[in-house]
Design brief:
InterPro entries: PTS_IIA_lac/cel, PTS_IIA_lac/cel_sf. With 106 residues, the protein is mainly α. It has 3 helices and no strands.
């Protein structure tokens, strides 16, 4: 099993990519590129899942009895993960909103 610092960086990298892709998906939907937005959301979800799996490694370590000292980097990684999850929910809603607006103009 890898170290806590490495897992933290894996989480930060993966969910950071997901966050960026969620933002790009919103921008694509705003421009009326709904297929592109949906594809970005799928790719972002894959990145988010990668980060979530890395986070599960930490939880597994703790469940196996490993004592984890307070680690600010892990706290940051978990914060980034929650931020990405919130942005995902908002992106889903905004893409649907832009789709509804586009459909109502037809």
């Amino acid at each position: 099993m890898v170290g806590l610092e490495e897992v933290s960086f894996q989480i930060i990298a993966a969910v950071g990519t997901a966050r960026s892709m969620y933002i790009n998906a919103i921008q694509a939907a705003k421009a009326g590129k709904f297929d592109e937005a949906k594809q970005m959301m799928k790719e972002a979800e894959e990145c988010f899942i990668t980060g979530h799996k890395a986070h599960m490694e930490v939880l597994t370590m703790q469940a196996n009895g490993e004592v984890m000292p307070f680690d600010l980097l892990l706290v940051h990684a978990e914060d980034q993960m929650m931020s990405a999850e919130t942005l995902k929910i908002m992106a889903d809603e905004m893409i649907q909103l832009y789709q509804n607006l586009a459909d109502s103009k037809l």
